Structures are given as structure tokens and as C-alpha cells.
Amino acid sequence: LYQLGYHHITNIDFSETVVYKMSQKTNHMKNMTWIVMDIQNLQFRNETFDTIIDKGTIDSLMVDQGSPWEPKKEVRLTVEKVFHEVSRVLKSQGNFVSITFSQPHF
After folding, report:
1. What is the spatial distance between Cα 26 and Cα 24, in angstroms, rounded to a whole number?
2. pLDDT in tens, 18-43
3. Which residues lie across from 71 on neighbouring strands?
4. Contact yes or no for 18/52 (Cβ under 8 A)
5. In 3D, which of 74, 56, 53 has the Cα closest to residue 65?
6. Residue 66 region, left (φ>0) first, then alpha (ψ -120 to 50), else beta?
């Protein structure tokens, strides 16, 4: 996205190692930031972002947690928290894109 002209990019990850390594790898890209943060408790103001892209985060929360059609209650509550937080920090008329690597189940 950066090469396409989207330069104000905020990335979050739960892993300090990932954030450190990606910060080093992209340190030449101005206005791209990396922050250690839990997606269930986003530390941003309401309506901060025009677009939010999830790349496998929701997948990682659901892995080995039962059927994707009938996930465990704990998993459903976790995913609901994620969607609540995403909705909260997404601007009105904003876009949420979720990229999943989950296999189709139909």
C-alpha cells in the first residue's frame, strides 16, 4: 500500500518482536508506524481511521477453537470484542477489510 501512495499507515501487532522487526525493516517509510497493541483493546480515539485491514488476526483468534460454524462461547465473545473495537475506531462510512486464510467450509 505504501508504494501505491498510502503513506499514513498505522500497524499494530500483539508481538513486540514483530513490531520491532517491522519497524526496522520499514524505517525508511515516513509516516508508517508500528505499535504493540491488543486488538481487543485498541488505544485509539473513536473514529480515527478511514480504513482498517485485518490480515489473519481473526483467524489466529479462532484457530483450534472448534467449528467455525459453531465456535466456543469464549471465542465468540473475543471476536465480538474485536469487531466492537474496529467499529469504534473506524470513521463513519469507513471500510473494514478482513483477509482470511481460512478454508471454505461449504
Report:
1. 6
2. 999 999 999 999 999 999 999 999 99
3. 66
4. no
5. 74
6. left
